[in-house]
Amino acid sequence: MSDIAELSRQIDSLLSEVSREGDARAAGWQSCIEHPDFAESARNLAHYLALRHRDLRPLQRPLMQLGLSSLGRLESRVLPGLRAVRGALAALAGRPAEVEPAPDAFFAGEARLAERSRAVFGPPNPNRPVSLLVTCPATAAEDPSFMLELAARGVEALRINCAHDDAAAWQRMIDHARAAERATGRRFKILMDLAGPKIRTGAVRLPRKEKRIARDDLLAVVPPGGLDAIDVAIKAFAVECTLPQALAAARPGHRLFVDDGKLGAVVESVADWGFLARVTRAEDKGLRLKSEKGLNFPDSDLQVAALTDKDRGDLDFVAAHADGIGFSFVQSAGDVALLQAALADRRPDDWRELSLILKIETPRAVRNLPDILVQAAGRQPTAIMIARGDLAVEIGFARLAEMQEEILWIGEAAHVPVIWATQVLEHLIKKGTPSRGEMTDAAMAARAECVMLNKGPYLLDAIAELDTLLGRMEENQHKKTPQLRALRSW
User: Fold this and answer.
1) Residue in 121, 193, 140 with CA at minimum distance from that of residue 455
2) For the segment 157-187, what is each residue's pLDDT rounded down to a tens digit?
3) Has residue 88 got a pLDDT over 60?
4) Taking Cα atoms as reference points, which of 193, 178, 186, 180 lies closest to residue 155?
5) For the chain, what is the mean pLDDT?
6) Helices H, strands E: what count in the chain?
7) Which residues contact 478 (CB under 8 A, 6 or more apart)?
8) 422 dihedral zone (left: phi>0; alpha: psi -120 to 50; beta)
9) Contact 153, 464 (CB under 8 A)
10) Residue 75 CB-density burial (10 A; 0-12 exposed, 13-18 middle, 19+ buried)
11) Best CA proximity match to 461, nearest among 451, 453, 473
12) What is the spatial distance between Cα 195 and Cα 334, in angstroms, rounded to a whole number?
């Protein structure tokens, strides 16, 4: 009995502290929230952050021993979950327990999440527990059958990437999608990604006759047109960086990654013409430097406007034709406010009906995610995209496995849907056969509300495979909760 009394005291204290701290944080978000129905979700998110800032492991095993919740699945209902544990402890101690909430109230967060998923992705396919978002290839502008195939397979949403093609091609893709809707009765949500500020390699200069840059080589990085300004005494590989602000933010000791992390380097010195970096990671045979490859500066504080001039031009089309907008390189709540102001200029009466997809690609975006999320979802339908390609390079592949879990938890706590994106079933889509690892990865995607598939010749095969896989996972797992169906293998 003394153990139960001590656990009760600890839960009472935890509930009081989490409630107080969470309410204080939620109060600071009130000015961002225009939709009253999101206020409770923001409050639950604030309580979840207060809860998870504590190490709960000492409490978990004693609670499990009593057959109670281990506090491991409270994301969508923080205070109701803690109160339920407190009530159960009171009953075990023979004290009067507080009145239990009705099931609808206890699981209200799950209902909000399902409703918001529907707002962003449209009505779900009844044969699949997770929505699909499919990236349109350039050929979709010329081939009406592509959209018909997707509609026939119950795909919920289409992604058009504004980094590629042009408004005329985008319009043809949308026209084909609407024609497929009329033919099949299946409605698509059209989500269009703004390109955002792209950091790419430009022109390349090779030293002497060497073709590949390798570990311990020097790499000079310069602004566009800056190759001729490099000190003639420096015999190094050299490459332009298309974003001068990245060069200005680089400091000795900062890391640089090239081409999705295929090459890693550390800045050694900074000069008027750019900087010099030492290669610390490369394949044994080295890397052939090419233009139009991605550059990542994970340690540099890039003060770059999230909306480029191109984005503002594209937004004229996107705001008029899309159901939602993919926001690349969003890093702060201020970035979201900037986009919302631009949308209000273009659609003053109904811009809040457009959904917003927050693409989380950088460490700064991760740090600011709660504020970013409230600024967005407080005003319009919102989803989070775990942009695992850039994010893996920025925070490290080892940490990505941990971070994608945490982003799923944050989304669930805010009752906001999450998109599992980048290289899902990539080998199957490109080559026609899946790898073992990517099948396991795709199975883990069942905990998100939507899975994004990229383009490739075997895309339709991948959709069929994913339908089967996600359907099987639905019987075994819902978010973090195992579904204990009857085992039939033994």
Assistant:
1) 140
2) 999 999 999 999 999 999 999 999 999 999 9
3) yes
4) 186
5) 93
6) 18, 17
7) none
8) left
9) yes
10) buried
11) 453
12) 18
Q: How confident is the model at residue 234 (pLDDT cuts 50, 70, 90)?
A: confident
Angle at 124 between CA 320 and CA 168, to 5 degrees: 25
Q: What is the CA radius of gyration of the chain?
A: 25
pLDDT at 1 over 60: no
Which class for 259: exposed (0-12), middle (13-18), buried (19 or more C-beta within 10 A)? Answer: middle
Contacts of 379 (CB under 8 A, 6+ apart): 32, 33, 34, 35, 340, 352
3-state DSSP call for residue 355? strand
Q: Which domains does the chain have, with CATH numbers?
A: 2-106 (no CATH), 112-197+305-482 (3.20.20.60), 201-296 (2.40.33.10)
Structure tokens of 436? 């073992």
Neighbours of 433 (CB within 10 A): 9
Percent of the chain past pLDDT 90, that is, above it, reads 79
Q: Position 303: which residue type?
A: Q
CA 453 – CA 62 distance, rounded (Å):
43
User: Rounded to an integer, what is the distance from CA 117 to the centroid of its chain?
Assistant: 15
CB of 343 closer than 8 Å to CB of 315: yes
Instruction: Give the tens place of pLDDT for each residue, 237-289.
Output: 999 999 988 899 999 999 999 998 999 999 999 999 999 999 999 999 999 99
φ and ψ at 358, to 5 degrees? -85, 110
